[in-house]
């Protein structure tokens, strides 16, 4: 007598669910601007700043990167701009494994990322227009392409009227908008804003956040590292929380703090 076993209803369903999930994850990674796979960073002094980090940032995403001081946010950003290399794992930007890049290719890949800092980092003797143009000049962009590109981003951030002013003549918000224009002028795939509102009062901070949201709506992927719990909780975007070098939460529509 032949005995045939009847598979349980749960088995094919669980296999199918795993395959579908794997397919979704692969499709998401294929469209991603940024993928971190099993990334660990240990410094020569033995300190492990990041451990077993997996992260996929799809094109057009807006992500808040949160966590206490020392959680690993700064190290993560350094890996993304290839100031540091991962000790283990892969950091893939726009399909390119950053660890495998020849040194001569690094500047070109870095142009795919625009960086906005807390302290603006503007050149004090150059005008608003010249500060933004300088980001293209150092990459060898032809002069005929620089002028329309700079004029376009200054209009986008609302600084056309201030184009001839130097940073000391600007408010803090205007300086940060200049820095955002500089980050945008080479059409990056990803904007990284590292505590961009840390030196600004609350009203101006919201103006900067609204500008970053508008830039995101134009299709630019944005990752913003911040300690501003009110902004994160109010906007309910994707939140990636780091603690002691690990991703402890990756939540769409999340608040700054975990809501149990």
- Helical region count? 8
The dominant shape is globular
Radius of gyration: 21 Å
Mean pLDDT across all amino acids: 89
Oligomer: single chain
Structural class of the secondary elements?
Answer: alpha/beta
Following the backbone from N to C, one meets helices and strands in this order, namely HEEEHEEHEHHHEHEHEE
Q: Could you list the spans in which at least 5 consecutive residues all have pLDDT below 50?
A: 1-10
Strand content: 15-25%
**What level of helicity do the residues show?**
25-40%
Largest sheet: 6 strands, mixed
Give the strand line-up of the largest sheet: 6-7-8-3-9-10
Number of strands: 10
Distance between the termini: 56 Å
Give structural notes.
The protein starts with 9 loop residues before the first helix and ends in a 9-residue tail after the last strand. The radius of gyration is 21 Å and the shape is globular. Helix 4 packs across helix 5. By secondary structure, the protein is α/β, with parallel strands linked by helices. It is 37% helix and 23% strand. Helix 7 links the parallel strand 7 and strand 8. The N terminus is likely disordered. The longest helix is centred in the N-terminal third of the chain and has 21 residues.
In short:
This protein has eight helices and ten strands. It is an alpha/beta fold.
Helix and strand arrangement:
Blueprint: H1 10-30, E1 32-42, E2 48-58, E3 62-66, H2 73-80, E4 88-93, E5 96-97, H3 106-110, E6 113-116, H4 128-137, H5 143-157, H6 172-184, E7 190-194, H7 202-217, E8 221-225, H8 229-235, E9 238-243, E10 246-251
Parallel strand pairs: 3-8, 3-9, 6-7, 7-8
Antiparallel strand pairs: 1-2, 1-4, 4-5, 9-10
């Amino acid at each position: 007598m032949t005995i045939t076993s009847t598979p349980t209803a749960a088995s094919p369903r669980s296999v199918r669910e795993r395959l579908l999930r794997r397919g979704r994850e692969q499709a998401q990674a294929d469209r991603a601007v940024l993928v971190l796979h099993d990334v660990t960073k240990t410094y020569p002094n033995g300190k492990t700043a990041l451990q077993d980090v997996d992260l996929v940032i799809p094109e057009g995403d807006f992500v808040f990167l949160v966590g206490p001081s020392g959680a690993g946010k700064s190290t993560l950003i350094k890996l993304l701009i290839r100031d540091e290399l991962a000790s283990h794992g892969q950091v893939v930007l726009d399909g390119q494994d950053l660890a495998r890049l020849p040194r001569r290719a690094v500047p070109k890949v870095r142009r795919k990322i625009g960086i906005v800092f807390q302290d603006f980092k503007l050149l004090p003797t150059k005008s608003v227009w010249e500060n933004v143009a300088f980001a293209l000049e150092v990459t060898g962009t032809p002069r005929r392409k620089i002028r329309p590109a700079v004029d376009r981003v200054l209009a986008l951030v609302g600084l056309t009227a201030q184009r001839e002013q130097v940073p000391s003549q600007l408010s803090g918000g205007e300086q940060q908008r200049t820095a955002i224009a500089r980050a945008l002028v080479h059409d990056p795939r990803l904007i990284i804003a590292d505590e961009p509102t840390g030196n600004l009062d609350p009203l101006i901070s919201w103006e900067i956040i609204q500008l970053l949201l508008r830039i995101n709506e134009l299709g630019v992927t944005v990752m913003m590292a911040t300690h501003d719990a009110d902004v994160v909780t109010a906007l309910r975007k994707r939140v990636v929380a780091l603690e002691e070098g690990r991703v402890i939460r990756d939540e769409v529509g999340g608040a700054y703090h975990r809501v149990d």
